[in-house]
């Protein structure tokens, strides 16, 4: 066989592989050419819904294609998150989640976890951080954090509190209070912010922590009483109530963030376009109106990866939740 014939045969043998790559590249270049799905792994009415729906609408405006929101609640955000981890890596299935459902409950439930939040996802960006506050039901008879501590010490039974799971920011913050003050509380787990808030408003539990945006109207009417905010600094909304920084709890990231993520393997060009669309969406009046009780941020690339990784590893190192 001549050298020219051998080269021709090698070129022909590479053609099928080249042919396989062309449609993939073409699809990425044409993206998006149909509606997208944004999965919220929580029931309607909670914190992720409050920020996720207007963001999805603003993303649709930025991309020029509909972004259909789909609630897939269950197992503290784990079921819907797992669903997205198994979706095709084509950029048409997005995940809107918070740190509770993405890393918190994942770290708290390793025995049932069927995805890896670090390996199986690519963060497009962390776009919002919520102001979180502890609140009490009026039946507890307290109006300040000091009165709350006194009531907890005087109670013959552990005070019940609403949680979204052992890895949630609220549960971790409550455990920090237990350790600091030598208290014992009873954790009652609900599947999402909506059911958790309903339980608190009804008096089914005595206290809980949640996003300020979800409870401002109830504090105004006296249906709930704010006790302490979860963060290093006091909140502008209620500057008179203390914060975790005031009591020396500053060694952990209790921030309650919201993020847009895609399955690992989505082409870099699509991730870049989604990042640009997220940047436009977070600055849109539509999203800004829904975010007036928190901070709109934009952590992308390695900054987002490292914050997610650090938060996940912090939670993995925590002691088990008290029985």
Automatic annotation (TrEMBL):
Q: Which domain of life is it from?
A: Bacteria
What SUPFAM superfamilies does UniProt report for this protein, alphabetically? Periplasmic binding protein-like II
Q: Which residues form the signal peptide?
A: 1-28
Write out the entry's keywords from A to Z.
Signal
A Pfam entry, by short name: TctC
Which protein family is it in? Answer: Belongs to the UPF0065 (bug) family.
From the Swiss-Prot or TrEMBL record, give the protein name: Tripartite tricarboxylate transporter substrate binding protein
